[in-house]
Amino acid sequence: MTSKTDMDNHKGSSEKLVLDFKEDTALTEMMRLRVSSLQKTGQKRQDGERLLLPYEAVYRLDFSVQELNFSRWYFSLSGHGRVTITGISQHWTPDLTNLMTRQLLEPIGTFWRNAEDPEESPLKCLEADMQEFGERIAELAKVRKVMYFLFAFKDGSTAANLSCTIEFIPEK
User: Fold this and answer.
1) Which residue ranges of the chain lie beneath pLDDT 50?
2) Are 71 and 1 in contact (CB under 8 A)?
3) I need a surface site. Which of 41, 70, 97, 125 has the fewest CB within 10 A?
């Protein structure tokens, strides 16, 4: 895990590929409409279906290169809060299928800064899980050009206060 300043220093290297997680607002809205529709009609979710929670949004990574090795994460979170990133394993087609819990990857990525921590203090994370999660993303990039993620913003964190990128080293 590295700070935003460190990331700016590394972006110029041609041996590395740094990808930004981008919010997919259309897909997030589609999933919110699914929740709203179920609530209005009084229907229940499909068995095993994973509905979007109010504090979650769908993000994506687009892979221009697919033969990658995970290198590192870059996080920046102003203020305090907790952000959880859950990968979606299959090439999910939300216009055709609902998101199912069996499609969610483990481990999840979590990083945070507690309310009592100074804002300039480094973010905390479960480093072994973040390493394994990054390696899983690199592995899945070999078979897809786009990968989706659920970002959960808790304890005061917001999308506006977050910058999250991931660095890979392309295989030779």
Assistant:
1) 2-13
2) no
3) 41
